[in-house]
Amino acid sequence: MTDLRVTTTGGTDIVLDETTIQGLQSSLRGSLLRSGDAGYDEARKVWNANVDKRPALIARCISVSDVINAVNFALANSLLVSVRGGGHNIPGNCICNGGLVIDLSRMKGIRVDPARRTVQAEGGVKWGELDHETQAFGLATPGGTDADTGIAGLTLGGGIGWLSGKYGLACDNLIAADIVTADGQFRHVSASEHPDLYWGIRGGGGNFGVVTSFEYELHPVGPMVLAGVIFYPFAKAKEYLRFYSDFSKQSPDELNTIGGLGTSHD
Questions:
Q1: 244: in domain
Q2: What is the pTM of this model?
Q3: What local confidence, expressed as pLDDT, does residue 262 receive?
């Protein structure tokens, strides 16, 4: 391996020597990837195939200690950082060019407490995976409209889902979280611990730190629900949208609907 050119937070390029890079690798239980390594191209792919970014390093974390070490490495070397959870964000902000990707996609731990009606899940979990575990107990929390969406990005951005009419946004159901902030410190946040940070991450986006674990309130839902899709021709858009506006105002909270305009190809 040779020295590596990387991008800093200021947008300039610097060179990291091999010894420095190996220092990061040795601190991780997970793997560290760079261009040319097996798995690098797969790890930089996201849901939106139009996004084609090439990070200098991808830290595939499997533990909180990995995240702490990756954040501290980025801090010590002033590296541009992005954080990948589910990788479903349309602009592909979870991948950066030339910087360090802190990849949580291998952190998949989920623990359901049916007595307390809560679930704790790590930052790489997707909504389909979370629902699979909570539905074993007939419980759910508002999540995304697509099972492939990561819990992290959706919750930190607010989080509208199929249960939101009755139970609010994903961030409304966030009880607590574990977060590694930009100074490399691990913090547990809730209404009583670091309440300002807890307030900030509930819909304020992912720039407050790397959230390694989320704890949600659960609600009795399912196992059976009624769902479906109705399509109308574009020529009826005006008529449909007027009907939808009136209908949605009168529908009960238990019924959640989403209306929109789009194109379709045969």
A1: no
A2: 0.90
A3: 82
